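Here is the promised in-class demo. Please do not try to memorize the tokens; focus on the logic of going from shape to residues.
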């Protein structure tokens, strides 16, 4: 079983990336794909028809195709998925209409609010389902700054730490 993970944020201080890397620390078998600095043009049929797919999108689509399981951590801007992530998802869905077919998907999100990026999480869960995944789960990590120490890069709330570490381990190993 091959598992990949990526974070849909282009922020250099992404709390979603920090959370994901902390959760994957004990899982070197997961292939983390760092898309943070990708400079992908906004999706356009004209670009697709005239220039084809960006090489980085082709690479990510190939890695998704080869994986059995995908962990996607999504950030939220103004109660929606970020423009960066939406663009990645737009390109992927045009690359293959059922890009997540036969994939188990785990969608994670966090924010400093009590909803933990719930709106973006729900959007991404729905997107993955519409694009082929029949097994997609979404989980949020609320109040990031209250439950995570950025210096040590660790979850400080022991209940949340146990819950999320168990979630990741069970997802990877099932």
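The designed amino acids, position by position:
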């Amino acid at each position: 079983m091959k598992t990949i993970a990526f974070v849909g944020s282009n922020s250099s201080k992404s709390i979603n990336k920090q959370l994901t890397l902390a959760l994957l620390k004990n899982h070197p078998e997961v292939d983390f794909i760092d898309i943070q600095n990708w400079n992908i043009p906004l999706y356009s049929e004209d670009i697709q028809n005239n220039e084809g797919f960006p090489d980085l999108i082709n690479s990510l689509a190939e890695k998704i195709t080869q994986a059995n399981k995908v962990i996607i951590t999504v950030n939220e801007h103004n109660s929606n998925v970020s423009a960066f992530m939406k663009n990645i998802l737009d390109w992927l869905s045009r690359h293959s209409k059922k890009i997540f077919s036969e994939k188990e998907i785990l969608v994670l999100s966090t924010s400093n609010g009590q909803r933990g990026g719930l709106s973006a999480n729900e959007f991404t869960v729905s997107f993955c389902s519409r694009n082929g995944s029949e097994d997609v789960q979404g989980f949020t990590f609320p109040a990031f700054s209250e439950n995570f120490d950025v210096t040590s890069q660790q979850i400080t709330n022991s209940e949340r730490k146990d819950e999320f570490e168990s979630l990741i381990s069970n997802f990877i190993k099932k």
